[in-house]
Design goal:
This protein is an alpha/beta fold. The protein has a single domain, classed as TIM Barrel. Helix content is 39%, strand content 12%. The strands form 2 sheets. An 8-stranded parallel beta sheet has the order 5-4-3-2-1-8-7-6. Strands 9-10 form a two-stranded antiparallel ribbon.
Length: 439
Amino acid sequence: MSFKKDFLWGAATAAHQVEGAYLEDGKTLNVWDALVNDKRVKNGENGKVACDHYHRFREDVALMKEIGLNSYRFSVSWARIIPNADGKINEKGVRFYKDLVTELVNAGIEPLCTLYHWDMPMWAYERGGWKNPEVVKYFSDYTEAVVDALSDKVKYWFTFNEPQCFVGCGHVDGFHAPFEKVTAYETEIITRNVMLSHGSAVKIIRKYAKQTPYIGFAPTASLNMPTKDGSVTEEDAYEFTFDAKRFSVSSAAWWADPIVLGKRPDNMGFLSDDDLKEICQPLDFYAFNIYTLFYPEWEKYDGAMNYAGAPKTSNGWLIVPDCIYWAAKFFYKRYGLPILCSENGIANADFVMSDGKVHDPQRAEYLKAYLSALLKASDEGVPVIGYQYWSLIDNFEWSAGYDPRFGLVYVDYKTQKRTIKDSAYYYKKIIESNGDILI
């Protein structure tokens, strides 16, 4: 079988990772612009120029069209829309995104808009950031500005990308901006304010959207899965995946149970019943980002998956195609919403070869394996509505800098020349067949 006829075949990026132009046309600093230094990002790199997508978006949309994408998930830079604490909207920033979505729509590509992908403006951070309850209003005002500007052409909305990461990596473990290690109590405050901001954003989108919106958010999968040798059963894996008590902010249930089900795990007593009423707003799909197992060091995986010489990406992540199958199955079972894979991809040691091309058979094989597993879930009755490969182009990969190359398109960061990789043309064949060639 193939995927449903209106399947969203796409690729994803994030504003800070690709746009550059970090102080152009009224944009101000975000936490990644201001707080990065040589010790915090590999090779002392930063996203000030990145892929220069701000100036090259038309070229990048043309690449999407050549690859055959019918959708594209991007994020908006909050500091580009509302650059200062006075709340005034930066019309030049708005114009960039209006031009981008117009270019997409004219190319027959559905724009999927993410409101927040880790790049809080410094003016908001300096006022307490996610620890300040006023952040809910800040984010709501920003959301309303974006919806007013883009919803005539944007139908699909994501409030937050991977709250597990920007809270866990940025505020708990401290290796992502703003590079904090907060207390457990402060983690609860941050969690509550992020969730309330999500709920407020959903209500604003539904109130002000100029066409019927489809709304979700994009958490990481935080998945564990059964093993073929039986050392981890399906029941074990399901319970482990949704164990909010053990993994708190890193788990799926910590975020999705309150947001989707209106229920709080046992260790989330800091959310009141009134909070849950605000947080739990109706969503139209359940998105997830998945690359590998959530906890490959789990002792039950020893010998079954996490063994010496196990296949891994260039940045050391286990290659486990069935994880996307189990993610779709588990999240549909628990949350009962249509499923959208909002990120999945492989970092590879790509380079331009002597013939001027980028030959990356590992990525093509990765796409085949992971999409075949996703198709299996679809064939078994999971309503899978889309897949967004990460990423469209090589980009700034946060604390790892520019070394990991996830893109379907190679970027020479010295010249900004783009080269479509072989895997992108294989992905195009999959798209043209709507998945039939995976069978």
